[in-house]
């Protein structure tokens, strides 16, 4: 018999427990769980541990008592599904823990609305930021959310509307399996104005449009798709250069990216859509550029991009360590920016510099050589077809050098 048994329990309490789960409670000398879980067992005469607030402290106490006593931990639904189960394993040891799961709140919610859920994305906002949700939605048609006070269903709905995300059927499933269970369907607009929803809820989002298709995995768009500074055809990294530069960064789904000299934000936005589970910090000093970048982030629904208004490298102070750094503009501080970025870049991460002028090309190469790196250099010379009367001619874009190094 294991020292700790973690039992999944629903709002129907003892009624929904198996004989095996009831036996685990009966054998225990220590019973731990939330207040509502412990209330289902008023007859229990052993030690009780109320799990509330400081989970680490509760887990430490459970581990301490498990050395001498049989412990049963009550947890909502499946304890290994966004639950306390992983923490208990870490504190007690996998070999000393047994799990008896109940159906999760997600399973119960989808069963109530009669929709299959094997193709649904599951997100928890328990103690987690909502930022990044909109970017993820661009590839999703079915989503279930576990909410909390900071990210309640109505607050999530307001956040969706701020990015124009209204084409959803929304279900709020409250107090599942309990006496006060309630299942309601809303529009996003209706939910944004609805208060009084129970804290015990699951929020489900289903696309209204059956013909909806997700954004491409490689979301590279032409310059005309972005707001940009004029004249000179807009200060924006050209599509072909963006493709090569982002490829050089070797982004993963959870990458943290610095885009230094973000300009119109095109590189930041497309990096954010590749790194959907990560974060992009767009650094820009020009106030007009900041405004345009904000506009593009909103219109392209990339809410995992944070704009940092300031001059690099000073503006980089305090940012989380990056997995990749892109330098598209330096305002004359290329040497300082490369040194600072390289010092903060994670080992194995990539640093990419786009250089247009001969001066910057020479400076970047010299800096890397002085640092002991032989950079990978690509000279990009792109010509695009342009209509000329009934013919097609080529129009050359400005050549650009792409420097890449990997931190040793």
From TrEMBL:
Q: Which Pfam families match?
A: Methyltransf_31, TP_methylase
Lineage of the organism: Bacteria, Pseudomonadati, Spirochaetota, Spirochaetia, Leptospirales
Among the GO molecular function terms of this UniProt record, one is:
rRNA (adenine-N6,N6-)-dimethyltransferase activity
Domain Tetrapyrrole methylase residue range list: 4-191
Per its UniProt record, what InterPro entries does this chain match?
4pyrrol_Mease, 4pyrrol_Methylase_sf, 4pyrrole_Mease_sub1, 4pyrrole_Mease_sub2, CbiE, Cbl_synth_CobL, Cbl_synth_MTase_CbiT, Cobalamin_biosynth_MTase
Superkingdom is Bacteria
Protein name according to UniProt: Precorrin-6y C5,15-methyltransferase (Decarboxylating) subunit CbiE
Q: Which CDD domains would you find in this protein's record?
A: AdoMet_MTases (cd02440), Precorrin-6Y-MT (cd11644)
Q: What keywords would UniProt list here? A: Cobalamin biosynthesis, Methyltransferase, S-adenosyl-L-methionine, Transferase
| Biological process according to GO | cobalamin biosynthetic process
Can you give the residue ranges of the Methyltransferase domain? 254-317
Pathway linked to the protein = Cofactor biosynthesis; adenosylcobalamin biosynthesis
Q: Which parts pass through the membrane? A: none
């Amino acid at each position: 018999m294991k020292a700790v048994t973690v039992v999944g329990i629903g709002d129907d309490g003892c009624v929904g427990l198996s004989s095996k789960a009831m036996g685990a409670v009966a054998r225990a000398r220590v019973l731990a769980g939330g207040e509502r879980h412990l209330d289902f067992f008023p007859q229990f005469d052993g030690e009780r541990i109320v799990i509330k607030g400081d989970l680490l402290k509760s887990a430490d106490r459970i581990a301490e008592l498990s050395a001498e006593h049989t412990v049963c931990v009550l947890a909502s639904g499946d304890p290994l599904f966004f639950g306390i189960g992983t923490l208990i394993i870490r504190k007690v040891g996998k070999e000393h823990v047994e799990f008896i799961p109940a159906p999760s709140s997600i399973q119960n919610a989808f069963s109530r609305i009669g929709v299959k859920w094997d193709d649904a994305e599951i997100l928890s906002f328990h103690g987690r930021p909502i930022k990044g949700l909109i970017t993820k939605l661009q590839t999703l048609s079915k989503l279930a959310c576990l909410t909390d006070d900071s990210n309640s269903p109505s607050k999530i709905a307001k956040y969706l509307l701020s990015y124009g995300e209204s084409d959803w059927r929304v279900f709020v499933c409250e107090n599942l399996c309990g006496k006060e269970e309630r299942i309601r369907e809303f529009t996003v607009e209706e939910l944004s104005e609805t208060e009084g929803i129970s804290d015990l809820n699951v929020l489900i989002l289903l696309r209204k449009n059956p013909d909806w298709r997700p954004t491409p995995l490689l979301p590279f768009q032409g310059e005309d798709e972005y707001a940009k500074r004029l004249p000179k055809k807009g200060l924006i990294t050209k599509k072909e250069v963006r493709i090569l530069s982002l490829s050089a960064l070797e982004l993963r789904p959870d990458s943290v990216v610095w885009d230094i000299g973000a300009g119109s934000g095109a590189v930041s936005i497309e990096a954010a859509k590749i790194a959907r589970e990560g974060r992009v910090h767009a650094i820009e000093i020009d106030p007009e550029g900041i405004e345009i970048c904000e506009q593009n982030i909103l219109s392209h629904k990339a809410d995992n991009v944070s704009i940092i208004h300031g001059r690099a490298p000073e503006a980089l102070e305090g940012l989380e360590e990056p997995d990749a750094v892109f330098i598209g503009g330096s305002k004359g501080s290329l040497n300082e920016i490369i040194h600072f970025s390289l010092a903060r870049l994670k080992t194995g991460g990539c640093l990419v510099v786009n250089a247009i002028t001969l001066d910057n090309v020479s400076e970047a190469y010299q800096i890397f050589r002085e640092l002991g790196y032989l950079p990978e250099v690509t000279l990009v010379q792109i010509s695009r077809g342009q209509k000329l009367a009934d013919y097609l001619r080529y129009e050359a874009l400005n050549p650009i050098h792409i420097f890449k190094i990997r931190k040793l």
